[in-house]
Design brief:
Layout lengths: L3 E4 L2 E4 L2 H12 L5 H13 L14 E4 L2 E10 L8 E7 L5 E13 L2 E9 L14 E3 L2
Antiparallel strand pairs: 1-2, 3-4, 4-5, 5-6, 6-7, 7-8
Helix pairs in contact: 1-2
Length: about 140
Amino acid sequence: MRVIGMIGQTPTTFSADQLAAHILAKSGRAISQANVNHCANEIISHPGGNNAGGAINGVSYNNQGEARAIYHASRNRGGPAAGCSVFFADAGGGTAKLLAIGAHVGTAAGGPVYELDWVAQDWGGSRRWRAGTRVTLP
């Protein structure tokens, strides 16, 4: 899928390198470059569509009244401090909408736990995700 972001005042379809730089800037954390590159490439190569594999159970993104599945790209080599997890949805037209950036930090009884660095302003998630908080996924 493609990710569109602003470079200067111009909407641009990000290359994998531009997407990686965008993820790093939004995170504000020293993510391992290999981990962030892996996530950027995984998002760009994702097939999209609401029925693509790997959707997170019980969490959705409402895009103009249509619930969209949420996916995540994650790589945690080097531990949580260097890890990268990006949550995204298919916003339609082959475009990914980035929803949150963080890192996998462990496991709880409910499932994997992620600490969030950044959450899109227009998406709080059904679990009211916020930057600086931890979320447990089913």
